[in-house]
């Protein structure tokens, strides 16, 4: 992902730990630098795997974070100036709640026609290096795998003004709720889509669709793999799933079928859904056929609607589907 601009500022607590000070870079990082490219690439990779909150700027008139960003994009202020201002505001916001230190990386990136701004607080850790005399010595390294504070703004979507788009994402780890609230306030972002809830609803809609269409085991498995594969690809890219794209992936012969089913059934899903990694990892479809019996169900039902007794080799279905129940009654 080519870097258009990048810069690093340093956050450091005062001796009494009462506030954070900013040591700002005078100018953006030189372009065409392999080390900076690698750093930003590693930060993107780590960021894409983390749970996130999604939203949009609340300050429609342009104040705070978005105001500085607008000034930069309009070439009214330089990258170094606006990122220093934003870092100083971050220092104030963080000092009210916790003492942290590290390097704040800002990276204006472009991939294809899409531009994004990635920002991340990167901590330093002590490692071991070899000096010119071939002796081991302490060597400081940036820890790009342990991000706790980071965000990314899809600048292209923001500038397009799409009312449905959730163009801002930020780390939202369950163990750092207060920190994510501070970051959201600093960004001036109102969280919109709840990624875990939306992902669960989407998977429920998919399960209902598979059941309604009565696909055979092989077809059901193929469509499940296609959905999970697409979702994981979007996760790696750090991008949301779109319902129309997903529909085409699930069924290439009828690319609009799943999309139309979702809309007609009114699941209340947004056009774009940020994939939630934990929810996806729990989703699988169990299928089996033997002796005239065919069984297929989603893995999240195991332990609730479906129980497996390994010792007795029994599968217990607690909530019999209505259609099957009516057939059983007529048989009696």
From TrEMBL:
It is found in: Cytoplasm, Nucleoid. GO terms for cellular component: bacterial nucleoid. Keywords: Cytoplasm. Pfam families: NA37. GO terms for molecular function: double-stranded DNA binding; single-stranded RNA binding. Its main location: cytoplasm. PANTHER family: NUCLEOID-ASSOCIATED PROTEIN YEJK, PTHR38772. Belongs to the YejK family. This is Nucleoid-associated protein. It comes from Vreelandella salicampi.
